[in-house]
Amino acid sequence: MALKADASAKLKTLGFDVDKLIAAIKADAETDVVIPEGTLITEADLTTRDTNKLNEGKKLGETEGERKGKELAAKAFRKKFGLEDTVGNDVDKVVEAVNSKVNKGDAGLQEQITLLQKDKETLTASLTTEQAKAKDAIFAATLISSFPAKRTSVLKDNEMLTLLRQDLIFEEHEGKQVVKRNGEIIRDKTTQNPVPVGQAITDYFNERKWIDTGTGGTGGRGGGDNGGTGGSGSGIKTMSQAQAEWIKANPSGNVMSDEFVSYVGKIAKANPDFKAYE
């Protein structure tokens, strides 16, 4: 009997030399046959093995996918919250680092708010100081505008003003401006009414002998009292006009400067009707 062709083909696929196998079977003496190495697996076993491999691969894939997903998520969180790479990919550690960062951020934000509040207080105090300086500078200019027109040139207006303000104090009293000296309001000897500011200043100038009597000096202020506008300001009648003209002629200047004070004094001297409070 001959071996079927399909059986012969299967044996060949398993590695057998079919011709030698048939010859060995027909031989009377024992004949060695080379049997291919390996394990014969049935179809059922093969199916089981493949199923197990698929399940194992699926588990490995899920594990690897989970690991990769956690890694990507951790990376995203580290980037979002500015965490160091040394935090790693452990979700619990990343969450802990994020919470720490958030808590620190709250403290940092509170600190920033505190600093901003301090800045606001500093700026407010600075603004108040500057406003006070501006107010005082304008008041100083007003006082100079009240200086007697025929004052000597022995001192500059600013020098006279400094000495005058060391002795005379100008305050509001019952809605009116009064002048004090040695803590007491200067009053008219007859009426006992407060002496007007202009009169108090004139009396002080007479006391200091700063009034030009015509026997010496030319009157007016000493050198260095150029107001910086290039004119006498003869057309200026009020303090507000003086400020406007000063700023126009001196864009980088301000009404708190000594130059402005001298400028107003010059205008007041040239204009007897100058209104220092308008």
Draw up the topology in text.
Layout: H1 5-13, H2 18-26, H3 43-80, H4 91-145, H5 157-167, E1 169-173, E2 176-181, E3 184-185, H6 197-208, H7 239-249, H8 258-270
Antiparallel strand pairs: 1-2, 2-3
Helix pairs in contact: 4-8, 7-8
Strand order of the largest sheet: 1-2-3
Number of strands: 3
Strand content: under 5%
From the alpha-carbon coordinates, what is the Rg to the nearest angstrom? 53 Å
Largest sheet features: 3 strands, antiparallel
Q: What low-confidence regions span 5 or more consecutive residues with pLDDT below 50?
A: 216-232
Which outline best applies? rod-shaped
**Distance linking N and C termini:** 141 Å
The helix/strand class is mainly alpha
Helix content estimate:
55-70%
Report the average pLDDT across residues. Answer: 74
What's the helix-strand series?
A: HHHHHEEEHHH
Number of helices: 8
